[in-house]
Amino acid sequence: MKRITLATVSLGAIAAIALPLAANAGPRGHGDHHRGMMKAYMAEIDANGDGDITTEEVETFRAAKFAEIDTNADGEVSPAEMTAHHEAERAKRRAEREARMFAKMDTDGDGVISVEEFNSRQMPGFEKADTDGDGVVTAEERDAMKAKMKERWSKKKAGPKPE
User: Which residue in 21, 26, 12, 113 sits closest to 64, CA to CA?
Assistant: First the structure.
C-alpha cells in the first residue's frame, strides 16, 4: 500500500514540476483554454509573482498540495483521499466554467438570464452547417458537416506533420 501511495504522490510531484515547464514550451495544439489553465497553475506555484519558479517555490507548493490531499494528516495519501481531491478539483473547475458561461449569457449583468438574452445567443454551429444560408440545415448539409468534422479530428489525432 505504501508503494502505491508513494508512486501516486511521486507522479503528482512530477506533474507539479513538469506541467508548468511544458506550458512554457509553446503551443502544441491544446488551444487557448489549456494554455490559460497552465498559466494559472504556474502562477499558483510562483508564490512571489516574479515570473520565475524556484526550487523553494516548487517544494513549498508540493508540501501544500500534499497537505491539501492528505485530509486526515497522517503523512500518507490514500487512494480515497486522492479520489476525493480529484473530484473536488473537477467540481471546482465545472462551477467556474458554469459561472463564466452564465456571465457571458447575462449580457445586462442583472443576475438572471431573460428569454431575450437566452435567444440572442449566436448559433455558429447552425450557421456553419447551413452552407446555403436558407435557414434550413438539410440532411446533406449535416452529412457534409460531419465529414468535415471527422476530417478535422483525424488530422488532430495524427498530429503535426514532420518537416
Answer: 12
Identify the residue whose cell numbers are 489549456.
34
pLDDT digits (tens, 9 = 90+) for 103-144: 999 999 999 999 999 988 878 888 888 999 999 999 999 999
Are 81 and 72 in contact by the 8 Å Cβ rule? The answer is yes
Altogether, the residues listed in the chain come to a count of: 163
The boundaries of every CATH 1.10.238.10 domain in the chain are 2-119
Query: Tell me: the pLDDT tens digits for 19-36?
Result: 444 444 444 444 666 778
CATH topology of domain 2-119: Recoverin; domain 1 (1.10.238)
**In angstroms, rounded to a whole number, what is the distance separating the alpha carbons of residues 132 and 22?**
43
DSSP state for residue 69 in the 8-state scheme: H
DSSP state of 50: S
End-to-end CA distance of the chain: give it in Å, rounded: 47
